[in-house]
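Lab notebook, page 48
Experiment: co-folding of the full assembly
Goal: obtain a model of how the components sit together before planning crosslinking
Operator: M.T.
Materials (sequences as entered):
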Amino acid sequence: MILNKFIKTLKQLPRHSLPPKGKGRSYASYEESRQPFSRAIEDEVPGGTTSNVTTAQVEALAQAKANEIISEMQQAQTLSKSGRTYSRFDFVNDIVDNQTAVITAGLWSDNVGSLSTYYTSSVETTSQRRYYINIYQKNPGLTGSAVQFACAYGNAVGSGSSALGTQEDPASKAVYAQYKQLLLEPNDTRFTTAGSGSTDSIYVVNVQRNRVKEQLDAGNWQLPLTTITSHDQNATGSVAVAGKTLTLIDDSSVASATVGSTGNVYNIVSGSVDNGVYTPTSPIYYGLFYPQYGTMILDGKMLDQDLSFATNLSASNAATAEGDNHFLLFHSISGSLGSSVAGFEARNQEKITSTHYFVRIKNGEFNFSNNPSFTTGSVGAFSQTSFVGDPKTYVTTIGLYNDQQELLAVAKLSKPLLKTFSREALVKVKLNF
Amino acid sequence: MGYLDNSSVTVDAILTIKGRELLARGANAFNITQFAVGDDEVDYGLWNVNHPLGTDYYGVIIENMPLTEAIPDETQALKYKLVTLPKQTTQIPVVTVGNTSITLLAPGDSDIISPNTSNLNGGNGTFGYTAILGNSDVAALRVTKPLQNSVLPTAPRFIGDNEDAQSVAVAGFEFRISAKTQMIEDKTTTITIIGNETGGSTTINLIVKKVTTNTI
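Observation: model returned without errors.
Model output:
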């Protein structure tokens, strides 16, 4: 209807102002033909020019028409959605998929970034304790206590661990071989650190898998170790710590990772998260860091040298062989509590792939509800008479559906969102995969 | 299911059991194409037009309410959906059926369920209705007037989160419910009819009588 009115209005305008139609008309004849109209307009609008006034008229009419078309489209859209509870996504504008982001978080339970209390459990069996010791963040008898990491000791020839007589089963040899298989190239037989070269003696910090997520965050961990002053032959007995406390970090801030079949490998060096590598031009190397494995391999020789571990290296068939050296590492870590350094700080890291769904709730949509409290009686009358002509609803839940109207994902808002004919809402729902 | 922190507006999104199932199936089975919004926890009876602080506070008791976390069971979420209607609407579309109670006396007895939508011309005229039979041991449910060119399931499908689920759902314009043999006792269940467009629903009570035997 408006379009017809617009055309009628245009028809009423003198044709002279419009470009000539048909072939064979020269520009001169066109200019001549528009003269009378120009003069007429100029007479009517003092100081105005023909082209300005004509353009303004056309623009005004065009604007009015455009507004009308938009209004009709909106009405048509509303009508087409009338009685609908589902609204389709515009795949171009509303769905943004395959968004990846690297997420880091505190490594320890409850996303704590610094571990400063260390407990062991008496539940572990003797045979387990020959190989490793689990470290908890709180007394294992308390609710919420969970394994944070494990300490182990490995020796390439089985030193520091009893062969158990004719069983020939030194735990330290098994541990060394296990990590060699996991972390070294197929033909390598020994761990080699920049601190002491090839080493038969390794201490292992192995973070619980569910804390690691995808990997430890290189450059954002710090392991405190305190000097061992004395200990029994078997470190499950008395162990005394005092004096110097070192903090170890990886060298990712000053050097690139070595990339091998086990992924990225960094050196473990003396330093701190806050101040970086100690003497970065000539770092002191203590071992190797495997972020994807959540594992730190510490060079036993370096710990003996700088932190007086005095690792029990008795031959596996000796009477004093059962050293349980991994308890030395536990005491060295837990003994750092009295020092000025923070606890065992670390973060995990994972790559999250997300799809973002932009839920656009326009002003004319979703202003009525099937909620039983929205109506009263059996004919669907509003329970609140003030809602007639000005309904109000609250959005609390967004459901994402497929074509079969199967509910695939649910999003809950943290608070009800008021929706009326004068309010629109845009809610971004992020699904992580 | 805890409460969400409502000190700032956030969105807590999870996959439903059905969503995880389709995601695991792969091959683009997980394909979100549309959305609906709901207000399951809202009691509009709390809307207080007599609030002493005036208009802005009519809904304050609802707006300040902390919401609970999303639940993954797709059969329990979004029970009450918001619906788009013209502004001058004074009544919500209501899904109705002829009988709100059906009693079937013998095995094989059947009845037709023809849902209608009042207060909205052509309401649910495209996507029809979904009928959910609460216990498929009691009766059989099938479509007698199927949807046209619809991707909605017209064959009964089990709903629920485990293999023991006995609820079945089917979409169409008209349904037939047929009694199954009940040897031990009368069996009772419900049939819920949901408008696939307007979202409204109604419930029918179904009773299937125990088989009676004559003694000679």
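Interpretation: Residues 6 and 65 of chain B are 8 Å apart (CA to CA).
Next step: discuss with group before ordering constructs.
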